[in-house]
Every structure is written in structure tokens, then in C-alpha cells.
Specification:
Elements lengths: L5 E6 L4 H11 L4 E6 L11 H19 L3 E4 L2 H14 L4 E3 L4 H7 L4 E6 L1 H5 L1 H10 L4 E6 L2 H10 L6 H8 L10 E4 L8 H7 L5 E3 L2 H11 L11 E5 L9 H6 L2 E6 L2
Parallel strand pairs: 1-2, 1-3, 2-9, 3-4, 5-6, 5-7, 7-8, 9-10
């Protein structure tokens, strides 16, 4: 009997859980490991050189430990700077997460879209090139927010988002009344999807990369992906604060939590 494919999902914080949810919905029979580099959280404020070195080192340790069939870098910030190096050095297929600018541009009727990510993601040349390649006919309003990442982390720990605070964060995106589509360019942000929709001053299309990543992973699997949901294991690179996530992770189907030495 073929073994269940092992898929390692990596992020600096809990944002990768949004990608993991999309993966489990399409491939419940896989053996999923969620790895959180919380010892270096957040990634979005780090210098590019520091970030590349950190991601490269931590992921090589994780790959040696787990021997995954597929590695998913479920972090926009890390993906925009580290994917070429990882793909050159890691033997398993490496799937990254990039801002869903192309589908957003196709979906927008007004050709005015918003891009909401970390300060690092929205300012990097990689993102500007995506806009030039796939949204040249659109006006793209960019907004970087580290605070939204913190709010998503707190939400998973049980602290409800303040809708007024979210409304204030989103306000610059909605100055143009023609904006009709908004890209969630950080995997943390889909965890706040309901609260963000409530805080928005009008209805818009919200676009993220989760399902597209899941479809891509399905094309790379060599073993059975269907069957009953196996849940997942979680690995943390640091102990500080991880214990507050245990109830939420258990509720999401986590069957084992390990803090790495």
C-alpha cells in the first residue's frame, strides 16, 4: 500500500494555517506537518539578507528531520526572497506563495485593486514585477501592515479583533471608490477574513493564494491524497508563546506539538 505523501507547510507564524486548511480540504489523506519559525517571528520587518539566511538554515534543518515529499513555503515574505535558493538546494519540490495579483486583476471589473501585505512584501521588487507582468492595466493600491499580522496571531490565541482598528487600517485602500478587489498578500490575513469583510466600508472581492497553492501541490503528489483527514503535527522553533496556541491548534486537528531544541 502506497504511503501517504508527507507535506511540510512552513511559516514564521500561524498564517500558514490558512494554507494548511486549503491543502487539507483538497488532500485530506496527506501526512501534514506545520512548522512555525516563531523564534524569528515576524519575518515581514527583517532585512532581506538576514531573512534569506534564516529561512535557508531553518528549512534545511526541518527537511533533514522530516524528509517531506513536498515543501510548502506558506509565507509571502519568505517566498518573495528565498524560493530560488531553496529550490536549488532542497531535493523535494518547493512550492511558494506569491501575491494573487494575476487572478485579482482578471476578476476586477473596475481595474482598481488593492494589495494588502506586510511592509516587506508590498515594497519588494518581486511584487512590483508581478504587478507589471499581470496588472499593468490596473491601478494597484498597496498597503503594508505589520499590525494585521499581530492581530491575526492574537486572534488564534483567543483575542477577538477590534473592528474599529481594522477599519482604520483598511481605510487607505478604500480612498478610491472604484476599488473592487483586494489581494490578501500575507497568509495571516485569511485568518481574519470575516472580520476584515465586516470592517470594510463596502463589499469587495477578497483574493488569497490558498486554494491555488493546494491545486499546485495536488499536481506534484506521487501518492494517494484522498481518504480520511489525518489532522497534522506542529513544530515550533521556539517555546515562548507557543503554549497559548495549543487549544486552537487542537481544535483545528493538530494531534502532536513539538518544540524543537
Amino acid at each position: 500500500m502506497a504511503h501517504a505523501p508527507k507535506v511540510l507547510v512552513f511559516d514564521s507564524g500561524v498564517g500558514g494555517l490558512s494554507v494548511l486548511a486549503a491543502l487539507r480540504a483538497r488532500a485530506p489523506g496527506c501526512d501534514f506537518i506545520f512548522a512555525c519559525d516563531n523564534a524569528a517571528f515576524p519575518y515581514g520587518t527583517k532585512a532581506e539578507t538576514e531573512l534569506v539566511e534564516r529561512v535557508d538554515r531553518v528549512l534545511h534543518q526541518l527537511v533533514r528531520r522530516e524528509q517531506p515529499d513536498i515543501l510548502v513555503v506558506a509565507c509571502n515574505t519568505a517566498s518573495t526572497v528565498a524560493l530560488p535558493r531553496l529550490r536549488a538546494r532542497i531535493p523535494s519540490p518547493v512550492v511558494g506563495v506569491v501575491p494573487a495579483i494575476k487572478p485579482a486583476a482578471a476578476l476586477s471589473a473596475t481595474k482598481v485593486i488593492g494589495l494588502l501585505g506586510t511592509p516587506g512584501t508590498v515594497s519588494r521588487p518581486y511584487t512590483r514585477q508581478l504587478i507589471a507582468d499581470f496588472a499593468a492595466d490596473c491601478e494597484v493600491v498597496c498597503l503594508g501592515s505589520s499590525r494585521l499580522v499581530e492581530i491575526a496571531e492574537l486572534a488564534l490565541r483567543g483575542t477577538a479583533p477590534d473592528i474599529d482598528e481594522l477599519r482604520a487600517i483598511l481605510a487607505p485602500l478604500f480612498v478610491n471608490p472604484a476599488l473592487d478587489t483586494l489581494v490578501l498578500a500575507c497568509t495571516h490575513f485569511p485568518l481574519l477574513a470575516e472580520a476584515l469583510a465586516t470592517a470594510a466600508p463596502r463589499q469587495v472581492h477578497w483574493v488569497d493564494s490558498g486554494d491555488a497553492i493546494a491545486r499546485r501541490v495536488l499536481t506534484l503528489l506521487s501518492g494517494p491524497a484522498d481518504g480520511p483527514d489525518r489532522g497534522f503535527r506542529a513544530l515550533f522553533t521556539g517555546a515562548a508563546g507557543s503554549e497559548f496556541l495549543h487549544p486552537a491548534l487542537a481544535a483545528l486537528g493538530c494531534r502532536e506539538i513539538t518544540v524543537l531544541p
